[in-house]
Design brief:
Largest sheet: 5 strands, mixed
Shape: globular
Oligomer: single chain
Structural class: mainly beta
Radius of gyration: 22 Å
Strand order of the largest sheet: 1-19-18-17-16
């Protein structure tokens, strides 16, 4: 009996140790503990490449985009969802803006089945999903359920051969955290929101991110970032510990509106969160400034630096001394990890023409020369350039 007890004890200790090593611990996200420090791109990455999106038509606002091994997909304002080759050439359009059959009114989010090439475009105005085959042919329309609160769904991912459709808290309301449908529109699972409804004044902000074989879900109002497994079970992955800086979850705190708006800079607004092999990348705004934080998953050290919308502040690009880096998304292909962002040609041309750039000495002088050649080949009115930063192994 004693031997059995010690055997069970050893197995338990081994199991706990294995769980800790596997990264199953919950990460605490608390900006009050972050260390402010300049972040050098060479500390986390070892290469940069640039893909100009061909100016076959003018691209204004890109709502969202996705990289696969062979293509770049993008949801573009007034255009719709399109696909580019990996050298930036227009390859395919999936439907268009409109109210006719196979069209959509507002397409901020979309999902792609990378194996079959099927594209699922979420129409946030009509509360439905338009489905297209790999060749752009319209397959079907999927109607989303109507919520009791009057607000629709916020985001979509193709996950575990199904459609994972998220709802973020909007103005204090939201019936679901998420629902899961099969690819023909049958509801397989619903997760009700745990937030008590209230009349707030902050719109829908949240995010979905894929990492390895699971999906991450977070919402600006809620405290928990969930990890969803392929069998659709879920558990906490991160906790936002913001204290008095967290957006309130009661109606009284939002009234009168003028007072709330005046003091809104005192709240931390989470803007994006995604995961790499080594880091959680967390972006947020506070006190009228924007920040990006790299949270080391191994030692939990959190380094923060200020960013801006014009690529003058952010992760310092000492690889080719190009524009500072403000990552927007995470992708994997060819067994490598990438962080990506979009930069405007006029910003790049202005930067390359500056005295500071001309006098700089980056980690890779050859990459600097390549960047200079690219910038000089662009017109300032050209479409955006996709910046791919390859992370260190």
């Amino acid at each position: 009996m004693k031997n059995l007890f010690f055997l069970l004890l050893i197995l338990t200790l081994f199991s706990c140790s294995k769980e800790e090593k596997s990264g199953d611990r919950i990460i605490i996200i608390d900006p009050r503990t972050f260390t402010e420090k300049e972040i050098l791109l060479s500390e986390i990455a070892d290469d940069i490449s640039y893909i100009p999106l061909i100016s076959e038509f003018p691209i204004g606002i890109i709502y969202s985009y996705k990289l696969t091994s062979n293509y770049i997909y993008a949801a573009i304002k007034d255009i719709g969802v399109v696909r580019f080759t990996r050298d930036g050439k227009l390859d395919k359009r999936f439907g268009k803006i409109g109210r006719g059959p196979g069209e959509y009114v507002y397409c901020h989010s979309f999902a792609v089945d990378e194996d079959k090439g099927t594209v699922y475009v979420q129409d946030h105005k009509m509360d439905d999903i338009e489905v297209y085959a790999e060749d752009g042919t319209h397959i079907r329309n999927i109607k989303l359920p109507e919520g009791k609160d009057g607000f629709g769904f916020s985001d979509i991912k193709y996950f575990s051969s199904s459609l994972f459709i998220a709802q973020y808290n909007n103005m204090g309301r939201g019936e679901y955290d998420w629902i899961i449908m099969d690819t023909t529109g049958n509801i397989m699972l619903e997760k009700q929101s745990s937030c008590t409804p209230f009349n707030g004044r902050v719109g829908s902000i949240g995010g979905l991110f894929k990492f390895n074989n699971y999906l991450g879900y977070w919402d600006n109002i809620k405290d928990t970032c969930f990890c969803i497994a392929p069998d659709f079970s879920s558990k906490p992955k991160c906790l936002f510990k913001l204290g008095d800086f967290h957006l309130p979850r009661n109606e009284q705190a939002y009234n009168p509106a003028s007072e709330f708006i005046k003091n809104m800079h005192n709240y931390i607004i989470s803007e994006s969160l995604f995961e790499t092999n080594k880091f959680f990348v967390y972006k947020y705004s506070f006190n009228n400034s924007d920040y990006i934080t790299l949270i080391n998953k191994k030692n939990l050290e959190s380094t923060v630096t200020e960013v801006d919308r014009n690529n003058t502040l952010g992760i310092k690009n000492d690889i080719d001394d190009g524009l500072t880096f403000n990552p927007k998304s995470y992708s994997t292909f060819n067994n490598s990890e990438y962080l990506t962002s979009l930069i405007q040609p006029f910003e790049l041309k202005t930067h390359v023409a500056s005295i500071a750039f001309k006098n700089s000495t980056p980690q890779f002088p050859k990459k600097k020369k390549e960047l200079e050649i690219l910038a000089n080949s662009l017109d300032e009115n050209d479409n955006p350039v996709l910046m791919l930063v390859k992370l260190k192994q």
